[in-house]
Design brief:
Helices cover 62% and strands 6% of the residues. It is mainly alpha-helical and 543 residues long. It has two domains: 40-378, no CATH class; 396-535, no CATH class. The chain is globular, with a radius of gyration of 27 Å.
C-alpha cells in the first residue's frame, strides 16, 4: 500500500508539479544540453569546500594531508611508505595555490569533483537525461565524496583515478582502438602509483575481460598488449626505484597491516564487506523507495544488461571479492575504507541496468535531499563542529598551526636563523613543516617513522628541533634520550590556545627540544632565560 501511495504522488506531481519543484525540473531539462551535470558537480564541490573551511576554523589539516605535502616536496619515483602519486599531485597543486588550509581543502573537493565527472563519463555510455543525475546524487548521499575526500592522501587520490581508469578500460574493450588502449594502461599504472591496493582494480580488469562473452575479439586485437605495454612504461621508473631500494614501499604495508591469524583476518574480511554495505545504505534506501514494486524486475534486468555493463559487473565483483580473499590468505588487515573509491560501480550497475526510469517526482526529491544535506552541513553543522573543536573537545589538529608558529618564534629567538629540520610527534612535525614560515624539512626517514630512532650527530649539527604534546609519554621519553646526545640543547614548554570568533578555546602544552646548529654563537644569557622561562611553570599563549 505504501508503495502505491508513492506512485500516486508521483502521478499527481507529474500532472501538476508544485511551484518549488519547477526550478529542479528546469535543471533536469538541462542535463542533455550540457550544463546541468557540471552545475551539480561544481555546486556539490563548492558547498562541501565551504563546509570544510567553516568546520575547521578551529582545526587544521589532517596529518595525512600534511604528510602528503611533505612527501611531495621533492620529486621522487618512490618513498619508503607510499607510492608517489599523491605527493606529485600535492606538489603540482602548490605550484599554483598557496600553502593554506583552504587551498588543500579545495584540492580535496576538486579531486572529488573530478571523480564524479569521471563517473558521469561512464554513466552516459548507458543512459541519458535524469538517470545520469540519479547516479551522481546517490553517490553524493554516501560519506565518500565529502567527509572521506577531505583527507587528501594515498587512499583519496584514487577517487578520481579509479573511475577514469575504468572508463578507459571500458572504451578500450569496446573499440579496441590504440588511443583508448594506451589510456587504459596509463591510468591503470597511475592507480598503482597512487596505492598498491589498486592491484585489485587491475586484477578485476583482467577478471572482467576473461569472464566477458566477447573476450575472444578483445584478445585477438592489439588492445590488451598495448595497454600492458603502456602501463609498464609508466610504472617502469617506479619499479626500478623499488629494485634499487629493496622494495621498501612493498614491505611497509605488509609490516603495518600483516602478520595476523586466520580468525582476525576472517573478521577483517567480514567487516570489509559490512563496511561497503554501510556506506551504500542511504543510497540503497533511496533507490528502494523510488523503485517500489519495480524492484521485482531486478533478475530480468540483470540478464538483459548490455555488454558494457556486463564488463563493469565483473569489475565490481573483482573489487568486492578479491580484497577479503587476499586478507584471509595473507593474514592481513583490510579496512573497508580502502574500497571507497570503487563504490561508484554498484550504483552505476543498479541505475543504468534498470529497465525503467525514475519519475521526476522521485528525482526531484533526491535532489532536495542532496541540496538539503549540504545546506544543513554548511549553515548548522559546520559552525557547531568548529565550536566543538575549539573549546569542548579539541583534538591534536586544533593546535597544529599555533604550535608551528610559536615554535618558529622560539627558534628564531634562540638562534637568529631559519629552522631547517623538525621531528618528533608526526602530526606536529608535519604541521611545523607546512605552517612554519621557514618550512623546515621533516627529518625522520620514513622507513624509521615508527621506530623513534635517534637522529645522527651530523643531523643535530645542522640544527634540529623536536616537538611533542606534553601529555605524550612516549614522545617525551624519546625527547629525553635525544637531549642526552647534545649538551647544547634547549628544552622548553609553552602553551598554545585557539581563539574562534573572539572566544578562547582550550589551551594545550607543547614540549620542544631545540639543538642550535653547530658553531652557533647566540647569546648564552638569552638561551638560559628561555630554558628557565619556558621549562618552568611560566607559560604564554600563542594567539
Amino acid at each position: 500500500m505504501r508503495l502505491d501511495y508513492f506512485a500516486a504522488m508521483a502521478a499527481r506531481s507529474a500532472a501538476a508539479p508544485a511551484r518549488w519543484r519547477r526550478p529542479f525540473l528546469a535543471w533536469l531539462d538541462g542535463i542533455e544540453r550540457g550544463w546541468a551535470i557540471p552545475l551539480l558537480i561544481a555546486g556539490f564541490a563548492m558547498a562541501w569546500w565551504l563546509f570544510l573551511v567553516i568546520a575547521y576554523q578551529s582545526g587544521d589539516l589532517h596529518a595525512d594531508a600534511l604528510e602528503t605535502w611533505t612527501l611531495g616536496r621533492e620529486f621522487a619515483w618512490g618513498n619508503a611508505k607510499h607510492p608517489p602519486l599523491m605527493g606529485w599531485v600535492a606538489w603540482m597543486w602548490t605550484q599554483v595555490f598557496p600553502l593554506t588550509d583552504w587551498s588543500f581543502q579545495l584540492l580535496s573537493m576538486t579531486n572529488a569533483a573530478v571523480a564524479l565527472f569521471a563517473v558521469d563519463l561512464i554513466t552516459r555510455r548507458f543512459v541519458r537525461g535524469d538517470a545520469r543525475a540519479v547516479v551522481l546524487m546517490l553517490l553524493m548521499l554516501t560519506p565518500v565524496y565529502q567527509f572521506y575526500a577531505q583527507r587528501f592522501n594515498a587512499n583519496t587520490v584514487l577517487l578520481a583515478i579509479w573511475p577514469l581508469a575504468t572508463y578507459c578500460h571500458l572504451r578500450s574493450f569496446e573499440t579496441r582502438r590504440i588511443g583508448w588502449s594506451v589510456a587504459a594502461g596509463v591510468l591503470a599504472a597511475l592507480a598503482m602509483l597512487g596505492k598498491y591496493y589498486s592491484v585489485f582494480l587491475v586484477a578485476s580488469f583482467a577478471l572482467a575481460t576473461f569472464a566477458h562473452p566477447r573476450r575472444a575479439a578483445y584478445f585477438k586485437s592489439w588492445a590488451p598488449w598495448i595497454s600492458t605495454l603502456a602501463g609498464l612504461i609508466v610504472l617502469g621508473p617506479h619499479l626500478y626505484w623499488l629494485v634499487m631500494n629493496d622494495g621498501q614501499t612493498l614491505t611497509y604495508p605488509l609490516r603495518q597491516q600483516g602478520g595476523f591469524g586466520f580468525r582476525h583476518s576472517l573478521s577483517e574480511a567480514t567487516m570489509f564487506l559490512l563496511g561497503i554495505g554501510a556506506a551504500l545504505a542511504i543510497p540503497a534506501v533511496a533507490w528502494t523507495l523510488a523503485a517500489g514494486r519495480r524492484l521485482g524486475r531486478f533478475v530480468a534486468d540483470f540478464r538483459a544488461m548490455p555488454s558494457g555493463l556486463v564488463l563493469l559487473f565483473w569489475v565490481f565483483i573483482g573489487t568486492l571479492v578479491l580484497p577479503p580473499i587476499t586478507a584471509v590468505a595473507l593474514g592481513t588487515n583490510m579496512p573497508s575504507i580502502w574500497a571507497a573509491q570503487g563504490l561508484f560501480l554498484p550504483v552505476i550497475l543498479i541505475v543504468c541496468g534498470a529497465s525503467f526510469t525514475l519519475e521526476r517526482f522521485f528525482v526531484v526529491n533526491l535532489a532536495t535531499w542532496v541540496v538539503g544535506v549540504a545546506l544543513v552541513a554548511v549553515v548548522v553543522a559546520a559552525p557547531i563542529h568548529a565550536i566543538y573543536r575549539n573549546g569542548i573537545a579539541p583534538n591534536e589538529r586544533t593546535y597544529y598551526r599555533l604550535a608551528a608558529i610559536e615554535l618558529t618564534k622560539r627558534w628564531h629567538a634562540a638562534t637568529g636563523r631559519s629552522m631547517i629540520q623538525v621531528s618528533g610527534d608526526d602530526g606536529l612535525a608535519f604541521a611545523t613543516a607546512f605552517y612554519s614560515p621557514d618550512h623546515p624539512r621533516y627529518s625522520r626517514p620514513f622507513q624509521f617513522q615508527y621506530a623513534w630512532g635517534m637522529p645522527r650527530p651530523q643531523t643535530l649539527a645542522r640544527g634540529w628541533v623536536g616537538t611533542c604534546f606534553d601529555d605524550d609519554p612516549t614522545c617525551i621519553a624519546w625527547m629525553d634520550r635525544v637531549a642526552a646526545l647534545d649538551p647544547h640543547h634547549i628544552r622548553l614548554r609553552f602553551d598554545v590556545q585557539p581563539i574562534l570568533w573572539g572566544r578562547p578555546g582550550t589551551p594545550k602544552t607543547i614540549a620542544a627540544l631545540m639543538v642550535p646548529p653547530r658553531g652557533h654563537t647566540g647569546d648564552p644569557g638569552r638561551q638560559a632565560d628561555m630554558v628557565e622561562d619556558f621549562s618552568s611553570s611560566g607559560r604564554r599563549l600563542a594567539q
